[in-house]
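Protocol step 4 of 5: obtain the predicted structure for the target chain.
Materials: sequence only (see below). No template structures provided, no constraints applied. The aim of this step is simply to have a reference model before the mutagenesis design in step 5. Sequence pasted as it appears in the construct record:
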Amino acid sequence: MPLSNPIFPLIAQAARASKQRAFVIGGYVRDYFLERPCKDIDIVVEGSGIVLAEELGKQLHTPVHVYKQFGTAMLRYHDIEIEFVGARKESYRTNSRKPMVEDGTLEDDQQRRDFTINALAFSLQEHDYGCLIDPFGGVKDMQNGLLRTPLDPDTTYSDDPLRMVRAVRFAAQLGFTIVPESFTSIQRNARRLEIVSMERITDELHKILMSARAPLGFRLLDQTGLLPLILPQLAALKGVETMEGRGHKENFSHTLEVVHNISKTSDDLWLHWAALLHDIAKPATKQYDSQTGWSFHGHDFVGSKMIPGIFKQLKLPLNEKMKYVQKMVLLHLRPIALVQEEVTDSAVRRLLFDAGDDIESLMLLCEADITSKNEQTAKRHLANFAKVRQKIIEVEEKDAIRNFQPPISGDLIMQRYGLSPCQEVGVIKERIKNAILDGHIHNDYDEAYALMEQIAKEMRIEEKECL
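Step 4 output (structure tokens):
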């Protein structure tokens, strides 16, 4: 029964009390047919959604959040969020995605929806309670796995260009196919995306990146011409350049494989972003040498420097999340470099010191970065990473290096030798840190203090001010 939740009879009762017609519409109806859980319910009202919400709020003795500017209201019922809006019809100007709105009917409201699968409605009227209203064949499109617009796609996408990115997002989430006339319409209207706020676009990018078919989503963004408008740095990874008959790896496909691999081991959004951006500097660092072939030296370092600009461009948070992604991009080659030679305690200490509590995320990213089609090569790399993981455990047990702070502080050095802040203080601190990481002394105050005295003697630092 589609309306088995006890909230629906209460909404129907409130609609009768306020002398309005109300319908369940959109995602809840779609997810009912797809047999997916849904905690958000949208109610469209032929009249005032705010009036209906306030009437229901009285019955439930629950607060109602009213957004008069948008003509909407919202309340919570147990763990369900219910939003109420008046049915409306919209018209658009070419230079804005903000519509001119006027009151409308259910039919008007269904026509302005993005896709037929989101234009489905259940009636809450007494005479046809629970009946499906499907004027555009949304159920049939769901059965066939198709994404189609209710109206001419040029109208739908030009009116609200964000719907083009939403089409890609639903394709990635549901595994549906964008019908050909809709696909070509997105290609024609791609530049309309420029009038949409980046925050709205990025919200859809998050959903694509975390979907079950994220690589499909980014390929569709590329094929429709949307990707160069949103994230040109990622689009620049496409293609293979050939010199003297030698080509490099196709980095766009490789990146999407890494994103797919990381989804198997982590649901951390920001680690998924790190996977998407880990090779972002390869176009900028690409070089060819007739002896050694293609190289991308320094793409880890250059890539980490690109992250703040990309985050600013996409209106992503310029905070610890950004720094985390920067760190993952900067360090993603370090464990690989470790396994090319003997995995020494010193190298592992330095990796632990630099990665800190993000060491597990880094190892997951490195393992996801193995995309070789040669099964033996892939197995060898994974076996090497297993050795690194074991070495990390051993070094951690012995040395407690992760996130360690050198036992000798700059303040102690200045106090001991009567120094002001100066280069010599930094030199002493750095040499003590390196001695610990290289295993020459333990992470121990007494050993570090003794080394400080030795270094100060070598540097002929006596109790005097640095100049």
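Step 4 remarks: The radius of gyration is 29 Å. The first helix runs from residue 7 to 17.
Proceed to step 5.
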